[in-house]
């Protein structure tokens, strides 16, 4: 008998044997085994090695948070621990909210993703006028404006407001026609706020709160510096010094661009965000919205060269506010965020309804390997052995008779390599 068959049978026996009977003799569905049994140890060890002050991760399966573990403290040399409700800056993970909100409004007929941006922001002009009307709202959300990557981020970091940055675009031209190539943006991405406000008459911040935060019970989430400071349970920013990590006062520069980098959230908030994106809050995010968000818009070949992701990815694109990765024939939705003092990552598998949130309060490269390490373990496990307990762990449907095996398995020829994370 093959090793794979032994593994499936062993799990099946454990699954059926561990089902307890209540006083009436009815069998109860057992609790799920951990999706990644070693991830808690890996997470704490990785952060300890780089002396990161604190962090937290959450693992979601279908409509449940199945694992939540916090590590360390909110501020170096402090004693208050990080927990699932500790608020972090999530930086560019904020783009997932902007992209999703725009698609929600488009689905409701309140805006058109094909509208020219010049209709809403006439002051944005390029050196060659022929490019002005070609830029559409969807190009902002997909980073396919054609403009050189991270255009004028240096001015954001110099604390320039947007009205002082926009005139600089008339000195340049896009590298390609809008929609034809990828170039990651913050200033241009934030222009979706103007589109949303002009089309709805509501501020971007108010709409995110009323249409996303409140209905998804994201009670710790907020937008902007004042929202961050208003949270008593917040993580401090840390930057690397000669002898480790040091607290740093949070500044307002990227907060001036809420759609691009303005959201604050806890691990619990982002776990609820993933549950909605996996289709379990259809009253908030219906299937047509999710389908539009997940549609690849522009290829991102640079992602294929990322050190820790390279062994996994077969292709990579950007959708609307989310990265769309391809691993074999499976899709992985992903976004990372990095701003002074914080790093954040969020990802989920639409095929298996599994999601991962990671937040840390330091700009540590220790973050780089955690998500790919998780997925290269979990995806093959869901494809083969672990499908038995996870299909029924949250009691969504009864145990079938007879129990059916997956029709086929996908091979993931990756060896475990902890040193690859460093």
List keywords for this structure.
13 strands; disordered C terminus; disordered N terminus; 422 residues; alpha+beta; 8-stranded antiparallel sheet; single chain
Tell me what the structure shows:
- The protein is 30% helix and 17% strand.
- The protein has 14 helices and 13 strands.
- Strands 2-1-13-12-11-10-9-8 form an eight-stranded antiparallel β-sheet, with helices on both faces. The protein has a three-stranded antiparallel β-sheet with strand order 3-7-4.
Mean pLDDT, all residues? 87
Largest sheet: spatial strand order: 2-1-13-12-11-10-9-8
The low-confidence parts are 1-27, 386-422
Query: Count of DSSP E strands?
Result: 13
SSE-based structural type: alpha+beta
What does the overall shape look like?
A: globular
Strand content: 15-25%
Helix fraction by DSSP (H/I, runs of at least 4): 25-40%
- What is the count of helical runs? 14
H and E order: HHEEEHHHHHHEHEEHEHHEEEEEEHH
Give the N-terminus to C-terminus distance in angstroms.
38 Å
What's the oligomerization state?
Answer: single chain
Radius of gyration: 22 Å
The largest β sheet comes out as: 8 strands, antiparallel
List the helices and strands and how they pair.
Elements: H1 3-17, H2 39-49, E1 54-61, E2 64-72, E3 88-89, H3 95-107, H4 137-142, H5 153-157, H6 162-165, H7 192-200, H8 204-213, E4 222-223, H9 225-230, E5 237-241, E6 244-248, H10 258-261, E7 263-265, H11 267-280, H12 287-294, E8 298-299, E9 315-318, E10 323-327, E11 330-339, E12 342-349, E13 354-360, H13 370-383, H14 387-392
Antiparallel strand pairs: 1-2, 1-13, 3-7, 4-7, 5-6, 8-9, 9-10, 10-11, 11-12, 12-13
Helix pairs in contact: 3-12
């Amino acid at each position: 008998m093959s090793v794979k068959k032994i593994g499936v049978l062993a799990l099946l026996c454990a699954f059926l044997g561990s089902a307890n009977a209540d006083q009436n003799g009815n069998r109860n569905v057992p609790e799920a085994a951990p999706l990644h049994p070693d991830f808690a140890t890996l997470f704490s060890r990785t952060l300890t090695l780089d002396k990161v002050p604190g962090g937290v991760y959450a693992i979601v399966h279908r409509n449940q948070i199945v694992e939540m573990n916090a590590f360390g403290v909110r501020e170096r040399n402090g004693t208050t621990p990080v927990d699932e409700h500790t608020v972090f800056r999530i930086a560019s993970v904020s783009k997932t909210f902007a992209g999703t909100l725009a698609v929600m409004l488009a689905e409701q007929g309140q805006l058109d993703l094909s509208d020219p941006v010049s209709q809403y922001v006439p002051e944005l002009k390029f050196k060659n006028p022929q490019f002005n009307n070609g830029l559409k709202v969807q190009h902002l959300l997909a980073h396919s404006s054609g403009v050189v990557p991270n255009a004028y981020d240096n001015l954001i970091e110099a604390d320039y407001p947007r009205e002082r940055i926009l005139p600089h675009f008339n000195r340049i031209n896009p590298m390609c026609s809008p929609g034809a190539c990828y170039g990651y943006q913050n200033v241009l991405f934030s222009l979706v706020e103007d589109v949303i406000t002009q089309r709805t008459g509501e501020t971007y911040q108010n709409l995110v709160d009323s249409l996303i935060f409140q209905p998804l019970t994201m009670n710790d989430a907020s937008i902007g510096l004042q929202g961050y400071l208003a949270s008593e349970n917040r993580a401090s920013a840390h930057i690397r010094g000669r002898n480790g990590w040091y607290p740093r006062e949070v500044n307002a520069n990227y907060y001036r661009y809420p759609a691009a980098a303005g959201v604050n959230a806890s691990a619990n908030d982002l776990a609820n965000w993933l549950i909605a994106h996996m289709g379990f809050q259809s009253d908030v995010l219906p299937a047509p919205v999710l389908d539009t968000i997940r549609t690849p818009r522009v290829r991102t070949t640079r992602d294929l060269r990322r050190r820790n992701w390279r062994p996994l990815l077969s292709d990579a694109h950007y959708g609307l506010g989310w990265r769309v990765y391809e691993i074999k024939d499976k899709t992985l939705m992903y976004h990372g965020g990095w701003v002074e003092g914080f790093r954040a990552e969020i990802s989920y598998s639409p095929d298996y309804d599994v999601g991962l949130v990671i937040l840390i309060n330091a700009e540590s490269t220790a973050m780089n390997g955690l998500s790919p390490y998780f997925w290269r373990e979990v995806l093959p496990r869901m494809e083969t052995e672990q499908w038995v307990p996870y299909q029924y762990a949250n009691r969504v449907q009864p145990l079938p008779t007879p129990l059916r095996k997956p029709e086929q398995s996908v091979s993931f020829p990756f060896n475990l390599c902890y040193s690859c994370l460093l």
